[in-house]
Amino acid sequence: MPNTMTGTGAIRRRGTGTLVLAGALFAAGACKGILDVENPNNVSEGSLGDPQAAVQQANGVQASTVRMLSAIATPYATATDELDWTGSREAWNELEKGVISDYLNEFTDLAFTYVGEARYLGDETIKRLEGFNSQGRLRDRSALVRAYLYTAIVHAAIADMFDDFAFSSKQTPAKPLGRPNMSQLYDKAIGYLDKAVALDDGTFRYSLIATRARIKHARAVWRKITPQGQTPANPLVSDAGANADATLALGLGAGPDDVFEMKSNIEAQPGINIWFEVNGRNEMAIGNVYRTLVDPITGQRDPASAAIIARFEDRETASQDGFFTIVSDRELELILAEAALAANDLVTFATHINAVRSLDGLPAWTGQIPALEILKFERKANLLFQMRRLADLYRFGEKVAEWAPDPNFASAFSTPGLLFPIPLVERQANPCIINPAAC
Question: Among 427, 48, 21, 397, which residue's Cα sits nearest to residue 204?
C-alpha cells in the first residue's frame, strides 16, 4: 500500500501504488535543536483574520476531522459486529450489547468533545475563508475547497451517528435539533460540497463528487431508519442525486478501484485512536463475524474484508494510526447496484455488483443467491470500518448476536434506528439540552 504523510487526504488506487494528494501536506517544522520546533500550522486566534493564514486554517480543519473520526470510530464499531469487546471497561461492554442510548457512557462522552470541536472549527473556518474570497483576498482558493470538503464529512458523520445535536458557539448554547431535524446536517454537508465543486479547479473533483454521492445516499438511508423504532418494509433506497454523482465520480478517477481516504495523525492520541484500542491496548478485537466472513458464492474466505483487516492490523503502518476510507469506487458501484435493485432492474444490478466482485477476482453473481442477499453481503464486506454498518443492520432488519434488551436504556436490540445521544459533557455545558424551552 502506498504511504502518505501524516494528516493527508488522498485518492489511492488499490494495488498500484498510485497516489494523488487530495489534502494539504503538513510541512515539517524547522529544527534548531531537538526541542526547538516550530509548527507552521500553529495559528494564534488573533491571526485568524489574516487571509495569509487560510491554508493553515484549512489544515486545522483537516486535523480536527481525523481527530473526530479517530474518536467516534471505536464506539461505533463496537456497537456493531465490526469489533468485539474483549477488555475490562464496562462502558465498552455496554456498547457491545447495543446500549448506545446511555448519555453517561464514558467513551461516547469523550468522543463527543472532538465531534463538537470539528463541527465548530469547520463551520467557523468556512465563514472566515468565504469572507476572504468575497473580498478578493483569498490567494489560494483550494484552502476553501478543502474546508468545505472536510466540514461536509464532519456534518454527515454526525447525522450518521447521533440522534441529536446542538449548534452551540463557544459559550453561547443552542437548542438541540431533535432527531426529526438531523437531516439538516446532511443538507448542510451537500450544500458545502456544491460550493466546493463550483470553486474547484479540478484538483479535488473526484473526492468532492464521490463524497457528495455517499452523503446523498446516507441521507436516503437515514430516512429509512427515521423515526426510530421500526424496520422499514422496503429497505432499499434510490436517490437520483446520489445516482448521478456516483456515475459521474466513477468516470473521474483513475479507476477501477479508486479510494478517497484520510490518514489519521499524531494529534489523534492513543486514548481516542481505534488502531491503538484494537492493535495496542486490545480492549477490542476484530469482530469474529468479519474474521471468519465467507463469500456466499465461493464458500471461501471473503477477500475484500480480509484485505481491510490485514491493512488495519499492519503493525508497521497502523498499530498507532491508519487510514479512514471516506468513499470509494466500490461504494459508488454499490450505490448504483442498490438503485437498480430498487427499480427491479436485475441486469443493471448485476453489472454494478459484479464490478465490485471482479476487483477481488471473485466469480460473477448470476442469481446463485437472492439479489438483496448479495447486495447486503457486498456492503458488509467492502464497507468495513467506514461507519455504514449500524444503519444497514437497522434497515435490513438484522441484529448483532451480542445485542440485548436493557432495563434502563433503549438498546439497538429493541429500538431499530437508535443512534448515539447527546452525551453528558454537552448536557452539563449546555442548559438548552436539559430545558430547551428556556432558551
Answer: 21
In 3D space, the residue among 253, 217, 257 whose CA is nearest the CA of residue 235 turns out to be 217
Answer whether 148's CB lies under 8 Å from 197's CB.
no
> What is the spatial distance between Cα 237 and Cα 184, in angstroms, rounded to a whole number?
19
334's grid cell:
454499490
Strand partners, 294: 301
b/e map 24-51, b = 16+ CB within 10 Å: bebeeeeeeeeeeeeeebebeeeeeeeb
- Report CA-CA distances (Å) from 104 to 68, 96, 100, 109, 420: 19, 15, 10, 7, 11
The structure's pTM equals 0.91
d(CA 4, CA 260): 12
The pLDDT tens digits of the residues spanning 124-177 come to: 999 999 999 999 999 999 999 999 999 999 999 999 999 999 998 888 899 999
C-alpha separations of 129 from 54, 92, 115, 260 in Å: 7, 40, 21, 24
Q: 467506514: which residue's cell?
A: 386
Per DSSP, the three-state class of 162 is strand
Per residue in 337-368, pLDDT (tens digit) is 999 999 999 999 999 999 999 999 999 999 99
User: Helices marked H in 54-141 — which ranges?
Assistant: 54-79, 90-96, 106-134
Closest by CA position to 97, among listed 75, 113, 116: 75
- Determine contact, residues 293/304, Cβ cutoff 8 Å: no
DSSP 286-346: E-HHHHT-B-TTT-SB-HHHHHHHHHHT-HHHHSS--EEEEEEHHHHHHHHHHHHHHTT-H
The strand pairing partners of 169, in sequence order, are 172
Cα angle at 84 between 80 and 86, to 5 degrees? 150
For residues 35 and 17, the model is more confident at: 35
Domains and CATH numbers, the chain: 53-438 (1.25.40.390)
CB 171 within 8 A of CB 85: no
Grid coordinates belonging to 27: 510541512
Q: How far apart (Å, rounded) are the C-alpha atoms in residues 271 and 206?
A: 33
Strands of the sheet containing 323-328, edge to edge, are 19-21, 9-13, 258-263, 323-328
Contact 164, 420 (CB under 8 A): no
- In this structure, which amino acid lies at residue 118? A
